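Good morning C.,

I know you're traveling, so I'll keep this short. The sequence:
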Amino acid sequence: MSKGTTTLKTERLLLRRHKIEDAKVLHEHFGLDPVMFRYSGWNPYATKEAAEGMVRQFIASYQDEHFYGWAIEYEDRLIGTIGAYDYDSAASRIEVGCSIEAASWGKGFGSEAVRAVLEYLTEQEGIRCVMAWCAAENIGSSKIMERAGMRRTSVEENAIEVDGKKYDKWNYEYA
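The tokens, ready to paste straight into the viewer:
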């Protein structure tokens, strides 16, 4: 029986459901900082209204037992988000994505959060394979995935284009 987004705790982090107050932090720490979307081009927090809309969408989605979306807290402060998307029940596969605010990079928070979600999805939710990807130049993201126990399975040359620049796409799996 799937539980969807449930509270997860690690040694240092609390992964919890989003609340509307998160929108302000997501806009200020993610939406206004270009390094946060440098390799994806995806910025759902660009405006206060967009951030609030995205958080409201997360909150509404918690009724779906296959929706997985967490706010990441460290010492009672929102420092990131992590979610799993595009669940394929026939293949028992899902994709995971994580963002940690730039001020909190290099402290191991990303790999700690990803590891917790990987374990939850595979051990508690029974999903056989969790996938992720990043631009080859996004060394921080590749380290997060590898430290969390994911392995690179393929490379797609020039598969990501952001602002006219092409990047190789590194694909990862955890099974």
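Safe travels,
E.
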